[in-house]
Amino acid sequence: MFDKRMTLTAVVSQLHDGMTIGIGGWGPRRKPMALVREILRSNLKDLTIIAYGGADVGMLAAAGRIRKLVFAFVSLDAIPLEPWFRKARESGSLDVLEVDEGMLQWGLKAAAFGLPFLPTRVGLGTDLAALGGLKTVTSPYDDGETLIAMPALKLDAALLHVNRSDWRGNVQAFGPDTYYDDWFAKAATRCFVTAEDVVERIEDDHAADAKANIVPRCFISGVVAAPGGAHPSSMPPLYGWDSKFLKAYAGAAAAEGGWAAWHAENTGASETDYMAKVGGIDAISSLPLPVF
Amino acid sequence: MATRQEVTLAELCILACSEAFRGGGEIVATGVGPVPRLAAGLAKLTHTPELMMTDGEAYLVEEPVPIGPRGDYQPKFAGHLPFSRFFDDAVWTGRRHAMVTPTQIDRFGQTNLSALGGTHKQPKVQMLGVRGFPGNSVYHPNSMFIPAHSTRVFCAGEVDMVSSAGYNPAKRIAGGNYSGIDLRRIVTNLCVMDFGGPDHAVRVISLHPGVDFGDVQAATGFPLLLAANAGVTAIPDEAALAIITRLDPHAIRASVIKDNPPAQRP
């Protein structure tokens, strides 16, 4: 009745030009890259992307799909400066709202609660408010404090990659940190997840992992099985990020042929094609977890 | 006893940075980069055991985790502090002291990690973005470590993009609460500074062995003060060096300052 299983293509067919899309994960960690690649295979454009950015943002920017980016950073950790993001920024091709990491999750929380904004001290004394057009509010209580009103970051869609889900959208996310994935889901009209493993009924064999259910299923609209779907980002405890791949990806930003050459060579005609190119789930599973 | 010739400048900086965390209480000491991180570990293992630290990712540890490849070493988790709880538990509650390395710092202590030159729509050089600097700067103590003291880092005028708040009156909106701005130390390859001058002016509080105040001023784009009691920065003793070596078994600290010079300038 409410079987939420679908394909990558079906998810992307529900996304439209001009949408505001939030992408879960953090830098080069837990990114729903299979969905990002599926967007790259589509004609989707003029997107507003909101993310703790890594190669997801770099690729979409390089491919010219982003009209506006809401970000606090874009980084590949081991390669601190994301070269495709830099290129896009330095060419002036992106509209941006630059915010603090905490403000970004605060804006998602405002959206999740249906509030127009949430007040914060963060941003005071910096250039963020002036550059981003952020307005202030005055506390109506005796303190009369002036605060920045962080606007709600309402998402048309959120994209996440999780470790496990069932067809109802009962998700489980493992690893030491699931970042703000739950708030991306709650800030969105619809949230689509890819999962390393899609099972029938999660309560049958995985009840002991119920605490890994980062967000209840009423916030999940679609579930796609995508083993290795975070590659080249990390997906603890299963695999680390692919340093070799990311180095080549970063290097390609300065190489002849630019994005078109990289895309033609690496994105693949389908996810099956991509997985074959990178050696399949066995190769991905052997990528060591990063040491911080 | 190690001499100034045997101790490296990086090791001296680790000790100087660790002093920034002294007496900090039960807060998270975050050192970003090898020298600040080793400094936080050294502080916790010597004068300030109540400090809290993470494994560099998401778990709290009571035994600082050595940096670099871990071999057989298994971090021992004592608590959990993921990014998903970081603002609630550490930053926005003021329970943290971060030591970071911004790209630019000005005389107000404002820093820039975001972009250089051009416009915000089209910067000449895009860097990381502001990350968590704005929140850090209004909520908890912050210190800085700069491995190459220069007028490019310590810039004249103001930083290109104010990523973290400092003591600049012109940047303060009426009614805003700036009481959380608490800039502690700046440790560089030349000296240790603080914001203890009039109106939080930057002043040199100790010079590394063999460095003159004139050397520091020449490498700084704004006027500096010299504290009345400024002395020579202390060099780590054998016990401190043993801890540093244990926390950095691969000598990653040797790659932080150009040519890994000795603590004593010739």
Quick overview:
The complex is a heterodimer of chains A (about 290) and B (about 270). Chain A is α/β, with parallel strands linked by helices and about 290 residues long.
Molecular structure report:
The complex is a heterodimer of chains A (292) and B (266). Helices cover 31% and strands 21% of the residues of chain A. Chain A is α/β, with parallel strands linked by helices. Chain A has a single domain (8-98, 154-285), classed as Glutaconate Coenzyme A-transferase (3-Layer(aba) Sandwich), CATH 3.40.1080. In chain A, α3 links the parallel β2 (47-51) and β3. In chain A, α2 runs parallel beside α3 (55-62), α3 (55-62) crosses α4 (83-90) and α5 packs across α7. Chain B has a single domain (9-253), classed as Glutaconate Coenzyme A-transferase (3-Layer(aba) Sandwich). Chain B has six helices and 14 strands. Chain B has helices at residues 9-20, 34-45, 86-91, 133-139, 213-218, 238-247, and strands spanning 28-31, 53-54, 59-61, 77-80, 96-100, 104-105, 111-112, 115-118, 123-126, 142-146, 183-188, 191-194, 203-207, 225-232. In chain B, strands 1-5-10-11-12-13-14 form a seven-stranded mixed β-sheet. In chain B, α1 crosses α2. The longest helix of chain B is centred in the first third of the chain and has 12 residues, at 9-20. The two termini of chain B are 20 Å apart. In chain B, 51% of the residues are buried. The model of chain B has no long low-confidence stretch (mean pLDDT 97). At the A-B interface, α4, β4 and α5 of A face β9 and α4 of B.
